Amino acid sequence: MKIAICVMGSRGDVQPLVALGKGLQAEGHAVILATHQEFQPMVRQAGLWFHLLRGLDPKASMEKFTGEKPKSGLKESQFVQSIRMTKLLQSAIPEIGESCLEACSGADCCISNLIPPAVASSVAEKMGIPHMYALLQPIEPTGEFPHMLVTHRTFGPRVNALSYACVSYGLWGMVRSHVNRWRRSLSLPALSWRYFPEVFSGPMPRLYGFSPSVVPKPGEWSDQAAVTGYWFLNQTAGWSPPKPLVDFLEAGPPPIAIGFGSMVVSSADNITELCIEALSKANQRGILLTGWGGLHSGQLPGHVFAIESAPHEWLFPRIAAVVHHGGAGTTAAGLRAGVPTIIVPFITDQPFWGKRVYELGVGPKPIPRGKLTADRLAAAMTEAVTNQSIGQRATELGEKIRAEDGIAGAIDVIHRVMKDR
What we know:
The chain is of the alpha/beta class. The protein folds into 2 domains: 2-230 and 404-419, Rossmann fold (3-Layer(aba) Sandwich); 243-403, Rossmann fold (3-Layer(aba) Sandwich), CATH 3.40.50.2000. It has helices at residues 11-26, 40-45, 58-66, 78-90, 93-103, 119-127, 157-185, 195-199, 243-250, 268-281, 312-315, 328-337, 350-360, 374-386, 388-403, 406-419, and strands spanning 2-6, 30-35, 49-52, 109-112, 131-135, 206-208, 225-227, 256-259, 286-289, 304-307, 321-324, 341-343. Helix 5 packs across helix 6 (119-127), helix 10 packs across helix 14 and helix 12 (328-337) packs across helix 15.
């Protein structure tokens, strides 16, 4: 069976889908993964066929939201940030769609994230093959918690459930006309206003790649919503840690790892100095993961080491705690390692994961990027490494996550869909 996976976004969005594709290929399926050029090495190293997903540069897009301040000067909500991101997608829909069409040529099944809504499913419709969403965040209605884009508020069950409809209709409304214009070129009928909100009551399964120990499946979700567990990609095979990194780790107590992944900030020097000051105030050693531009690696004091990146599954079990932006992938890696997590959320789903980590008792209260100071970060670091309750809960949660096999769970669902066809 040939399976096409179409995924756009940052590394945290792409890597879990690469892991899922690798698992499917190990089961004997031919897998082609369409994504951005910069992730081609990761896709090929996993043994998958690579296809270029054209239309959007993820790094340049991220700079629009984490490297720039809104023109109004006002603080943006997660929903407003998502509106700005969705506007970028509008003109890119034809190129994204054509890329998906090429990747899905001859495929028996199409799997995608939201790239944007209805693009990959339109391709599957045109080709007469099943389409399944593979998602890293809970985005279908529940009364148990509000939509991830409004997590700064706490509501009752009815308003929580209503928040999903508001967000779904709002974001779908921004791309609907653009999607339908492209669908006309495929000789497909226009999709209604109800299309995307009703995806979550439809018959096709939705795969959720997070742990039920982190977000238990809400009671209102149907059997078609499968919370499978995380999809982890082993990146340590063939990788050797640089000797300076090993020497630093062995030279003292476990350090705190700090990195903001794909977040790009205009004040990288300032935030780097802030993190170093926080480490000094908390009397901790630190490793800076410089990523796409969130931190710099200039002149550093002896208790701080910098490296662009290192496989999380290798590094995180060797540290005392991790400070990061709260992306779904980095959050998963930290929780699997069983170490306390400190989240500094920037955009979209990151406040949701920060709140979830705090509610699970495996990390201090999140510090929004706009409220980050050296004193607040130092206090969070101290709490993370000295609070025995946080440490114990993090250890226990890590054990649960490591016992799960999310990839196998997702593959079981995919096999059931294909068997029923």
